[in-house]
Specification:
The chain is of the alpha+beta class and 201 residues long. The chain is 41% helix and 27% strand. The protein has two domains: 113 residues, Bypass-of-forespore C, C-terminal domain (Alpha-Beta Plaits, 2-Layer Sandwich), CATH 3.30.70.1740; 83 residues, no CATH class. InterPro entries: BofC_C, BofC_C_sf.
Length: 201
């Protein structure tokens, strides 16, 4: 059992290996970038213009936003010139003002956070949704909910034992395992199953 807790079983691993390794969700941050010719997004230019117009020091927060999890820290009070310099030096960062007038600088990272790599499990919640947990599912600390699963289709199609392992929780240790689990079980999403039924009728 201890070994299983650290590694995916052969059944689950073989099932996941037969699926594409990239989940659409982890690529959305790339697709949503609206970049101008000079390398800055239109959103960044608007944000910097607002800061320049305000002409005062702002409390600046930095958030590192992962596919699973995030880290935050306070950078201190800064004026427009220093914030603009940070964004120019870090082209992958985006900025926005919150309702308190505080500045948030955000870096999106297509990976799991260190905490997720240590503690993440994929399982099903009480409503049958594929769900990411921090720690074993019985602790019920939900990080993210994806889509509702068609359990009947899974029972008839998946190898014996895979559904039980999903109930118990599949340990997720890196981005490839995360993407593989989502990609594999997306075939059994209720909406997907309904579309298949419509096409066959």
């Amino acid at each position: 059992m201890a070994w299983w807790g650290l590694h995916l079983s052969e059944k689950v691993q073989s099932l996941l290996n037969s699926k594409p390794q990239i989940a659409v969700e982890t690529l959305q941050y790339l697709q949503n970038t609206n970049t101008s010719l000079d390398g800055e997004s239109n959103d960044d230019l608007y944000f910097l213009q607002r800061l320049n117009d305000s002409d005062k020091a702002h409390k600046v927060m930095f958030r590192r936003s992962y596919v699973c999890g995030q880290e935050e820290q306070v950078l201190g009070k800064m004026r427009f010139e220093r914030i603009s310099e940070l964004i120019h030096k870090n082209p992958t960062w985006t900025g926005h003002l919150d309702h308190n007038g505080d500045v948030w600088l955000v870096e999106s990272i297509s990976d799991l956070s260190p905490v997720c790599k240590q503690k993440a499990y994929m399982s099903m919640d009480a409503d049958g949704n594929l769900t990411l947990y921090e720690g074993p599912p019985n602790k019920e600390k939900v990080l993210k909910t994806f889509f509702q699963l068609d359990i009947n289709s899974m029972e008839s199609a998946l190898p014996e034992g895979v559904l039980k392992e999903l109930y118990d929780g599949i340990r997720i240790q890196d981005i490839d395992e995360y993407n593989s689990v989502i990609s594999t079980f997306s075939d059994y999403a209720r909406e997907h199953s309904a579309n298949v039924m419509k096409r066959t009728n």
